[in-house]
Structure formats: structure tokens, C-alpha cells
Amino acid sequence: MGAQRSPKSAACLVLLCAALGACSGDDEDGGGSGGTSGNAGSSGNGGIDNPGGGTSGGIDNPAGGSSGASGVGGIVPGDGGGSECPDARVRASRVTPTVMLLVDQSSSMNDPFGGDGTRWNVLRDFLLEQPNGLISDLQSQVRFGFALYSAVSGGMDPEPIGECPMITSVQPAIDNYDAIAAIYSPADVIEDTPTGDSIDAVIDSLDLSNNPDVQKDPVVLILATDGEPDRCEELDPQNGQEEAIAAATRAFSMGVRTFIISVGDEVSDEHQQDMANAGLGRGPTDDNAEYWEVGDDASLREALMEIVSAQLGCEVQLNGMVASGDACEGTVVLNDQPLECDDPNGWELSTPRTIRLLGSACDTLKSDPDVFLDVTFPCSVGVVQ
């Protein structure tokens, strides 16, 4: 399946909400007498830390007073009749996806590949190329990890000799080129392809939080393989399809999406499709997921770039939620250039917790490693932290 090249340099941002002001008539004590939390205060506007706040609650007001205006989580839209209404600014800092590259180290990776060399060398050359290689060009924006996998069978005996799976790996990190090159450059092919066992082992080695309240960066596993999978219980013949699909299904249940690239044409279409669907959690009634079968250097590069670039999109995560008001009253500035809300080259509120940059703004976000994004909401827009 053909892959379309996407922009090489990209990143997503997470926004850290920092409220700088409140709809306040006076100081932190509020415009009224301010009752206890959840009780009515006297008429007037709630201050920043005023737990009662009378008519309108303040930014950190947990209740807003029983006679106060309705609000969510302490931030109440509207100017409340006060003379001042400072904006709430949302500051941006870059976060990066984790991309774990899992490379088949079986002996068939030494087969010719589209007249460009062997499968093994062509894949390694692109991953380790400097400049214009996948890892070197994106290592400051992507948390790359890497693992080689294989096993050795006992000739006619399907039992493995020694460890199975045999994995050499580097844990994901920013600026990880040197560590990956140190194990990948001198490596050579081994023998077999215990794919499912290897996916399980690599996923178990990752630091994956099971706490749903922890903000998770995207985590993906890219499997580059050239043959049908084995399994450690029986390395020959290649009867590891069920185990490989089960491992991709398990990885998805743990928050890791798996993408498969067939390096050559020896992986069946059926298995590639099953792995692609399992890797994205798709069932028999869902649309089929994309997979990549590549036959030369150019198509391999396109496939890898498409998968990695797709993780570096233009969604911007808010550390909070726009709960009320018109989000388009907010101001979004990208590299000192104000963006228009709901403009083809501006921004939009895609969910209450995310904004999306569009058109040329999206292109800038992807192509500029030092991009600066500044987001400000007036107090007429309620933001819940």
C-alpha cells in the first residue's frame, strides 16, 4: 500500500493553564463579604480566592455562593459588573510522542531490496543517515526508542537455542541518535522472527502509566518486518500469526498503537491487515486500518515518514477545559502572528480541551522546531482547570 510523504519536522504542544487574573471588582477579598465555601456571600463580585463571592464567583472560587452566578469548577464567565477584567493566559510548552522502532533481525533481511541493496542495509541506512535520516532529523522532537529482535532455532528442532526472543534495545528518549546508532550500526542479521513474543517484551519494557489522570503523550510502535512471524514455542515453521495479533491487541489496550511495514512482499496481505487492525483496536465491523508494503528505498522512506509525521499533528492539548462562552473571543498568537478563529489558516476549538491549528498555521507548527504559541482567553470565556 503506497505511503504519502508528510512534513518531516513536526510536534504537538500541550498547554499549561496559568490564570493571571479574575473578574474582580476589588482585591483578593472580593467585592462583597464572601461567605464560606458553598454558601451565599453578600452581593458583589468574588475575588481570586474568595470562597463565597456573592453574585459572581472568582477564578479559584470552588462554589460561587448559593446566590452566585452559575459556573463550573470555580471559573465563572462574565464581567460581574467589575471595573477590571484581566485576561487568563494559557502558556504553551512542547511535548513529544514516543516512537518505538521494532526491527526484524531475521536472516531473510539480507535479501535484495529493489536494487538498492539488502533489506537490512537500506532500512538501517535511512534510520541512521545524517543528515536527512529519520532519527537524526527528528530526534529533538520525537522520543525515539529502538529494538532489534530475533531468535535461533535448533535446525530441525523447532525449539529455540538460548534466549527467545533475542532483543537488543534502547529505551525511548529525546536526542537518542547516538545510543541507537551504537547498537544498530555494528548489528547483523540472526535467524528467526518471533514477532508476538518480541512485541510483548518491548511493551513490557516501556514506562506506561496506568493512571488515567496522567497526561499521556502519544506512544506508537512501528514494526518493520519481512516475513511471517514465528513463535518461541515453535520457531519453524512460521505459525506465530495469532500470537503477533494478540500482542498488538494487548499493546493497544495499554495505550500503544502498532503500525506494520512489510519490507518486501513476503508477509501475506491477510496478516498485514490483521496486524494493522489489531494495532489500532479495530474490530471486524470497523474500517480496515492502513498498512505499508514497501519494495525499495523510496517507498520505505515514505512509509516511515508518513507514520511518524502523523504522530506530530496540529492538535494542541489544553490543561483545562473551555466550559462556557465563545472560545473565538480568545486570542491565539503563533510566532508573534495573531491567528483568526475558524479561519482556514487559523485555529479552531476542536474539543473543549483541544484547539487545532489549520492550514499554514499547522504547517508552521510542524516545520518550526522553536515555535512559540501564546493563547489568551478573556474572562467572558469560562475555563475549568
Protein architecture, described:
The structure is a single chain. This protein is α/β, with parallel strands linked by helices and 385 residues long. It contains eight helices and 18 strands. The chain has an eight-stranded mixed β-sheet. It has a six-stranded mixed β-sheet with strand order 7-4-3-8-9-10, with helices on both faces.
Overall average residue pLDDT: 79
Helix content: 10-25%
In order across it, which strands form the biggest sheet? 14-13-17-2-1-11-16-15
Assign the CATH architecture of the largest domain. Answer: 3-Layer(aba) Sandwich
Task: Specify the CATH class of the largest domain.
Answer: Alpha Beta
Head-to-tail CA distance between termini: 43 Å
The radius of gyration is: 26 Å
What do we call the CATH topology of the largest domain? Rossmann fold
Low-pLDDT runs of 5+ residues are 1-83
Largest sheet geometry:
8 strands, mixed
What is the CATH homologous superfamily assignment of the largest domain? von Willebrand factor, type A domain
Secondary structure tally: strands: 18
Please tally the helical runs, counting DSSP H or I stretches of 4 or more residues: 8
Strand content: 15-25%
What is the domain total for the residues? 3
| Anisotropy-based shape | elongated
Element-by-element helix/strand order: EEEHHEEEEHHEHEHEHEEEEEEHEE
